[in-house]
Amino acid sequence: MKFTTMNKFFGWTDGSCNYKTEQGGIGVLLKQEIKGEHHQDSYKISKQISEGYFPTTIGRMELKAIIECLKYISDNDSQIIITTDSEYIVNSVMKGFLFNWEKEGFVFRKNSDLWKEFLTEYKRFTEGNIVLKHVKGHSGIEENEICDKLCSYKQFKTYKTDLSVKERNDMYYGLK
Fold this sequence. Notes:
The chain is an alpha/beta fold. The chain has 6 helices and 6 strands. The protein has one domain: Nucleotidyltransferase, domain 5 (2-Layer Sandwich), CATH 3.30.420. Strand 1 (8-17) and strand 2 form a beta hairpin. Helix 1 (58-71) packs parallel to helix 4 (112-122).
């Protein structure tokens, strides 16, 4: 079930990866603030997403978690605040670097497939309605700690297939 009412969403995301085994995971915690008929009551409904991927990298998992968070929200007019411990992703989006990479065709950009997927989701929403915020990882913030546990690659018995190292390199060099 997807959330469908126009409202404000709060998402927390995290990714993990073991560099030796290339096993990774994503963790997403999503809350929706719902106002009552008279806008006096506010309720929070939570959704948690926890998925494993192989082979992968930490950068891919951090970005994939944000994409999955956005995919879950079907109301394109919603206001969304996503908090992540990936300062790279926050700066890439909020400082506009991503949009320059898009104009340049993503050549020599790691994870261009996921950045393109992110943009597809991002552009579904009303301009200015998505805000990404950075939080320091492992700093005791409850929602971030929940996501950290949800994305732990050690817990998964099965993994979805991610791109191989060759496929990632081909994208980086503009061969794919």
